[in-house]
Design goal:
The structure is a homotrimer of 133-residue chains. The first copy, chain A, has 133 residues and is an alpha+beta fold. Chain A is built from two helices and six strands, in the order βββαβαββ.
Chain lengths: 133, 133, 133
């Protein structure tokens, strides 16, 4: 079966010819680095890492559910932050979306994300339907 | 079937015992972070992000074709830049290599790549033969 | 078969509700970004990139063996360093753990890792049992 594009009302679509938020193939969902921009592209001004990560995980959850899966199916996340001293804020958000065996994770501090208001970007890989519910 | 190493004239091979440009296993091609160095290792001096990204996508295309696939099979790219303000230049190059559903993508600004002349590094995952042609 | 968490005495487990060092699903092992912290969480103070990378690859090896595989099964590694000028030190460690076709690799300099003593972080993807022995 060919690669399928997955969309969800939870995750605003980018303009054409940029990227897909999520592609599904061979039972594996690849989720783009997601940020906490709003439904109309609004910057996440004033939102800290906890709030941004929560918004991002909400988008990832919506995409995975649209793919027929759930957050339990996530096997790997990569978290990019601009201030690693606030990593505990990302962890706090993560605890609200996962239970049992958390995904394999990498978290690094990069120099910049797409705009200064964006403090966190998170990408994910999930094997749909393979999580322990 | 065991992991296969994929090579292409489009992508100069590294010295021994460094990395493989592309490995193929279970129908999945993993492409290393590629940069715009020339066939003899020349630095991409004077090439901007558009030109470097174009050279890089050309290498990835060559590798995927050598693996029996195409750019349509790419499900995820990760783009590392040293000046995220020039991300539109990478996007411009990307539009020349993809159509339809673009790959899931992450783009972050790191502090440095292998040498100061290198402005962009791009890695990719592709599920060979699964793209919509 | 559902996602399985893989553990090994070689790689100290994180506290609960943080991440899994390694998850295995559909024959693919996803290894978290590993660092050279000691068995009791000790910082790798005084260890250079070579020593840290060697400690990290030792952890990855232990996890993959616990998953029924080996370092030959690694198809992709991503290496995050804080001083890319020392990348040859990481390469030196890598040569002690791989032979034949090295994994596809990406190596970038980020601004910071989890603490200042940590100079290297490495994540890996392996297709268990698919390496050329």
């Amino acid at each position: 079966m060919a690669i399928q594009r997955i969309t969800s009302p939870a995750a605003p679509e980018p303009p054409p010819e940029r990227w897909s938020n999520c592609l599904l193939v061979d039972g594996v969902a690849y989720v783009s680095g997601m940020v906490a921009r709003g439904a109309q592209g609004e910057m996440p001004t004033g939102m800290d890492e906890y709030e941004q990560a929560k918004a991002i995980f909400g988008k990832i959850k919506g995409l995975l559910e649209a793919a027929g899966g759930s957050m339990a199916d996530v096997v790997k996340i990569t978290v990019y932050v601009v201030n690693i001293k606030n990593n505990v804020k990302v962890w706090a958000a993560r605890r609200e979306f996962f239970k049992g065996n958390f995904p394999a994770s990498t978290l690094v501090e990069v120099r910049a994300l797409a705009s200064p208001e964006i403090l966190v970007e998170i990408e994910a890989i999930a094997h749909i339907g393979k999580g322990v519910r």
